[in-house]
Amino acid sequence: LRTPLTSIRMHAEMLEKNWVKSEDKLGEYYRSMRTESERLSRLIENVLDFSRIQKGKKKYLFKLGDINKCVAEVAEMMRAYAAQRGFQIQVQSGECGEIAFDSDAVTQIVVNLIDNAVKYSSNSNDKTVMVRTKSDGQYVLIEVEDRGPGIPYRQRKKVFQEFYRIGAESTRETTGSGLGLALVKRFAQAHNGFVEIINARPTGAIFRVSLAAKLQNNI
Ligand code: ADP
Known about the structure:
By secondary structure, the chain is of the alpha+beta class. It is 43% helix and 20% strand. The chain is globular. The two termini are 36 Å apart. Adenosine-5'-diphosphate binds next to α4 and α5.
């Protein structure tokens, strides 16, 4: 939580002291304050949801609706954040029909996966994040694919554990809480579903979230 706060405070201070002269820089600092505040909100949302789940107080609201619309809205919301880091988001919506889902939970699934795709492939040449939806009849699938380093096989279970992050704290370049994927897994399970990691080609990770197309006893 501290990193986005530090960045916001630093930029606010420079603006307050009138240190920023060029119009371009002004725009850049305001934009950064906005996207960093949004990132802070996402982190706080994860912490709050995690605490609700821990206390057994997390409630889901399943409603019949168009999941493609929900996913496309999240992609749209994340576009500026991604663009600021040189990324473009491509959305491919497949036929999914109407399913019962909790739109806040699905939003958070897609937000966390896009956030990770951008964060962990910042060093790759291909800065494209692909977001796909499709249905196999039994499940509605949401996939987020990047061209980053991917996730080694031995880490593929661990990354879904609470607070688990790959690598050593001292050498890590990215910030995070280690809660994002744990929540993605919980939210998928709340939809009688699951999440898996698939190798992307030529490199990268595909996170595939499968949500039950027909939920029983939920609506
Ligand atoms: P956070 O991003 O806050 O560290 P997450 O639970 O979202 O926490 O992710 C856990 C770990 O999984 C991350 O720290 C990172 O090491 C790894 N990871 C997640 N998404 C990706 C990705 N798209 N590519 C490579 N590594 C990833």
